[in-house]
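Running co-folding for magnesium ion.
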Amino acid sequence: MKKIIVEGLKYKYPLAEALALNDVTFHVEQGEFIGIIGKNSAGKSTLCQALVGLVPHFYKGAYGGKVIVDGLEVKNRSIADISLKVGMVFQNPFSQVTGSKMTVYEEIAFGLENIGIPRSEIIDRIDSVLNLLKIEQVKNHNPFDLSGGQMQRMAIASIIAMKPEILVLDEPTSQLDPAGSEEVFQAIQSLSKQGITVILAEHKMEKVAQYCDRVLLLNDGKIVDFATPEKIFSREDLEEQGISAPVYTRVCKALGVKKTGTDEYPVTLEDAEKALRGRVV
Ligand SMILES: Nc1ncnc2c1ncn2[C@@H]1O[C@H](COP(=O)(O)OP(=O)(O)O)[C@@H](O)[C@H]1O
Ligand SMILES: [Mg+2]
């Protein structure tokens, strides 16, 4: 079942001269884990915002084409309607904090209270997301006393607690150290395995390679390619696209070692190891 349909999407911010998104067309199936990559200003954040309706409802500007999320045409629905189906975690977690709650616990409860979830279920949901994001130990802290990484986890927890069908994350681990990033990716993967559709804009290519089913490569507001990580990271023009392939892929490319049984290069440690072992005599 198609969970996201984007057809001929064009968008220009007010006062901007160039299109931020230029004829973007792609479909996503339910439960897929999709990575969005591309150099700075490629349009990754704008595309994320188009999936939750901030583009065009909040940012205004010139808009053409169609975005349909879980059957709702974004252009014709309010951000409030869309947000019941699509949760978004912003690039900067500070922009996501309400600023009015005294504890992490109350901060996460806020969205749930707003949509009228019963008290006992609120408690269950919060316990579960605190555990999933490993932030139980700060549940009684003030959100503004958190480290960047803890705040980022809290922002993700608040969105996940709403149980969206589609989760859009814009560089959700930018403030996290490698161990924290890995934990957050595993948490997102477990949601994806439960059938949640995940769209993730990301700079960390090793993570994209390891976790994403398909990768959408953007440049200048246009889709360059939408394919498996192996196909995307085997492209010859990555440098031109401003992308540095995972280190495993670069080593295998340098050695001319393809993924076992395919014509593409390995993108994960496991596959690189297998392919390289095959070469050792
Ligand atoms: N609020 C805004 N107003 C005007 N132009 C913007 C705004 N946000 C982004 N842009 C422009 O839209 C283009 C795409 O930006 P963005 O979606 O932020 O790219 P990315 O997330 O890939 O770095 C860029 O040219 C950027 O300058
Ligand atoms: Mg961005």
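Result summary
The mean pLDDT is 94.
DSSP finds eleven helices and ten strands in the chain.
Job closed.
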